[in-house]
Predict the 3D structure of the following.
Amino acid sequence: METKKVTAPELTAMKSRGEKISALTAYDYPWARLLDEAGIDVILVGDSLGMVVLGCENPLQVTMDDMIRHTAAVARGAKRAFIVSDMPFMTYQLNAEEAIRNAGRLVQEGRAHSVKVEGGEHIAPTVRRIVDIGIPVVGHVGMTPQSVHAFGGFKMQGKGEENAARIRTEAQVLQEAGAGAVVLEKIPSELAKEITESLVIPTIGIGAGPHCDGQVLVTHDILGMFERFTPPFAKKYADLAEVTLEAFKAYNADVKECTFPEK
């Protein structure tokens, strides 16, 4: 029996049914295949790949070519999940025409099902233009990683009524612009609850508490594979870094001691 594919309308239907949406990141074929087999609903090809895969200091150094290459690899491995690809820094902020061109590349060359952009009111007209040509868009408000320098680090957002009101407005504006979902990152749980209840489109939380319609985490964080920095809200489900290191050490010892390969 063929597995039903997750689509943009299905994500909205899941919210209306009260069914939680699961999302994790992937950046290549083998991890995408495993996430798909596990039943994960949404695979985010995040610009977090800059830090956890490419060794960059932050996501700002990720390019369109990086995102297209990694998204295409994920698309080869995922048959059921809905694939969302981040639009890198400065590929959608200059003007709508460039944003449309780059979004189109992620769909055409990278085979993404949707693109994700950060920001609120200032990006809403661009979101509308991208949606109008038939590309689903996921918004992202709260702690937006591409604004890491403006925030002075990956810090909690939405504290205080003024900041909370701004994030509420941003989420609403994105919905009105046609976004099919919105990521809420590192905001107070009660604020995430208010926004989730006020929107028709699903909210996907990351460090935003249990009241969102879905949750997303960086796969390397939940598997203990990125030891440079682990956000406090990420639950570690395995410690693959330690297991892998021991395997590498064992192989190294076998080669040095001439016990591998066997005769």
In short: The CA atoms of residues 143 and 151 lie 8 Å apart. The chain has a mean pLDDT of 96. The first strand starts at residue 21 and ends at 25. DSSP finds eleven helices and eight strands in the chain.
